[in-house]
Write a structure and sequence with these properties.
4 helices; rod-shaped; alpha+beta
Length: 179
């Protein structure tokens, strides 16, 4: 449950810092666990090798040792098989988690973009640059009309036609006039 909450928090961060950061973190975390599983498999392989070596040393005359070693080998092989199956399931789960994280990050980014797009037109700007290259500083929008906007700025005031405004502002102000 705690891991899911952490993943949820990481998803929010992903929207802010980019999907790659979260994916890299998840990948590193899962890679570490994957390495631990591989190390466990390696240790079990070593144990199997030791038991098999013990069988060879004991020879055919020590039946009890052979039986015990055979049982231990069987147990170790079963544990190794279970570890391999667990590792495969882990890989599948990791891929699913990555896909879910990416889908959630994309949905969050789209929602954020939609929210920005649907936000009301700003009424003031630190600066406003028009399509004809003019830059106005300390801009306050005084009036919005069907033909353009009337502004007050650091050097005076005036009316700017929609043709001279950036497209994003034209859409927002014209939508506001229509309402």
């Amino acid at each position: 449950m705690m891991r899911k909450k952490m993943l949820g928090l990481l998803l929010v961060i992903t929207v802010l810092v980019g999907t790659l950061g979260v994916t890299a973190y998840l990948y590193n975390e899962k890679s570490r666990e994957l390495e631990e599983a591989k190390a466990l498999i390696g240790k079990q392989d070593q144990r199997i090798a030791v038991y098999e070596e013990q069988l060879e040393i004991a020879g055919a005359t020590i039946n009890e040792l052979q039986l015990q070693s055979a049982r231990l080998i069987a147990v170790e092989k079963k544990q190794r098989q279970e570890a391999e199956e667990s590792l495969e399931q882990f890989k599948t789960d990791l891929a699913d988690q990555r896909a879910q994280a990416m889908a959630q990050a994309m949905a969050d980014a789209q929602a954020e973009a939609d929210a920005k797009k649907n936000a009301p037109a700003p009424k003031s700007f630190k600066f406003l640059k028009t399509k004809d290259g003019r830059t106005y500083y300390g801009v306050k929008v005084l009036d919005i009309t069907p033909s353009g906007i009337t502004i007050l700025h650091a050097e005076g005031g005036g009316k700017i036609a929609y043709e001279k405004l950036p497209e994003v502002l034209v859409e927002k102000y014209q939508a506001e006039v229509a309402n």
